[in-house]
Write a structure and sequence with these properties.
Largest sheet: 8 strands, mixed
CATH topology of the largest domain: TIM Barrel
Distance between the termini: 8 Å
Radius of gyration: 21 Å
Strand content: 15-25%
């Protein structure tokens, strides 16, 4: 059950244990919240504060999922499939129904997302509705249309020869610059670029954009004070994305040692998204996938996990991204299980979902930690995630606060 409540002006949250996101662990902690920010962290309850007893829980910073698609919603109508239904509903209906995705993300402990691709700028609409308090959901940083190469012939419109419904399509340096600028003009926080083939069933990973095209997009983003995420299912697109100045590379399986070393040296953030293919395999019946698709997905998962393990060993900076779509919301934090399997300590995995995500977003002094002056994005779990990461990754958390408001409370 979700219960949205506004806390008193000054509220003291008492936790049995607290992980502050900066490496600190505190027992019997008191977090004082004033408005939407954290006022203090310590052991004393200030006089006159409203006290909330959460001493049976461990507190952590709200999680940051840096790869989602919040407006990819499926309504489970009998006879429909998620991908086939996408885009068939009215835009207003889609944004309204996508509140379910937002709710499930919050219930998994995710209080901030970087949303990497939508259509008709529904992500911008959803971000703005959440920011003005008209919709409850994670704080959103959005990308508008993802830039991609032509994959089908143009259709002539006699009434408007220049008309297009594919506002993310861009071929060549000049076109890439134009489309990237259009996303920024529309209000995007990030630029997203599809640097290779690859999606749910398509695991090919062929590079689509040249180095020059990637660099053109990165330059446009950086000149505007924005950042760029480049999708690459395979190693070639990842190699050129890193050289071109991508701030993060998504998926990036089968990277060679030289590419991984360059990633570590440049500080490019790796968002491996291992679990999203596990999700597709687990929900194969909903998507209508046969056993042959599941076999390919499992092969890709194994290679993706192996690449992640090598990246961890090489000291690459890694951030948590679920690539959640449709019914995958609520499973966002399961990516952390893969991080631990790849050799991360639970503390490092938590950092990937908090401080690393905040730094990638350029919000390291506002998000990703429980500290004075930071947004009061705080989650509560039962148990010790430093000993068992699964207490954090199974979802359905008992209590979640975002910006000083209780947005999940289970009784």
């Amino acid at each position: 059950m979700m219960n949205v409540a506004f806390l008193a002006v000054v509220t003291a949250l008492r936790f049995g244990h607290l992980l502050d996101g900066h490496g600190g662990v505190m027992n019997e902690a008191v977090v004082v919240v004033e408005g939407e920010k954290i006022k203090s962290v310590g052991h004393e309850v200030p006089k006159g504060a409203t006290v909330v007893d959460l001493t049976k829980y461990t507190a952590l910073p709200g999680l940051i999922d840096v790869h989602t698609h919040m407006t990819y919603y499926w309504d489970h109508t009998p006879g429909t499939r998620p991908w086939a239904q996408l885009g068939s509903l009215h835009d207003a209906v889609t944004v309204y129904l996508a509140q379910e995705n937002a709710r499930k993300a919050l219930e998994s402990g995710v209080t901030t997302v970087r949303d990497l691709g939508s259509f008709n700028y529904l992500d911008i609409a959803m971000r703005d509705l959440i920011n003005r308090g008209a919709m409850t959901g994670p704080r959103m940083f959005v990308a508008g249309y993802g830039l991609h190469i032509s994959s089908s012939p143009s259709k002539f419109n006699s009434r408007d020869p220049n008309a297009t419904s594919d506002f993310g399509r861009a071929d060549g340096v000049a076109d890439v610059q134009r489309v990237a600028r259009e996303q920024i003009a529309a209000g995007a926080d990030w630029i997203k670029m599809y640097g290779s083939t690859g999606s749910d069933q398509d695991l090919s990973g062929f590079e689509t954009y040249s180095f020059d095209e990637m660099k053109a997009a990165a330059d446009v983003a950086h000149r505007a004070g924005k950042k760029i995420a480049i999708h690459s299912y395979g190693p070639d697109g990842a190699r050129d994305a890193i050289r071109a100045g991508a701030d993060s590379v998504e998926h990036a399986t089968d990277m060679d040692d030289a590419t991984i070393a360059e990633m570590a040296k440049s500080g490019t953030v790796y968002v491996p998204t291992v679990d999203h293919n596990r999700y597709y395999a687990a929900h194969k019946d909903e998507f209508g996938y046969g056993d042959e698709v599941v076999t390919k997905l499992n092969d890709y998962i194994a290679r993706n996990a192996a690449t992640l393990k090598r990246a961890v060993h090489a000291g690459v900076k890694i951030a948590m991204g679920s690539d959640a779509v449709f019914t995958g919301f609520g499973e966002n934090a399961r990516e952390l299980d893969w991080f631990v399997k790849a050799g991360m300590t639970p503390a490092a995995a938590i950092a990937a979902a908090t401080t690393n995500g905040a730094t990638l977003l350029g919000k390291e002094k506002e998000l990703g930690a429980i500290a004075p002056g930071y947004y009061a994005d705080i989650i509560a779990v039962e148990g010790d995630p430093l000993a068992d990461i699964s207490v954090l990754t199974k979802g359905n958390l008992p209590w979640v606060m975002k910006g000083g408001r209780v947005v999940v409370e289970r009784k």
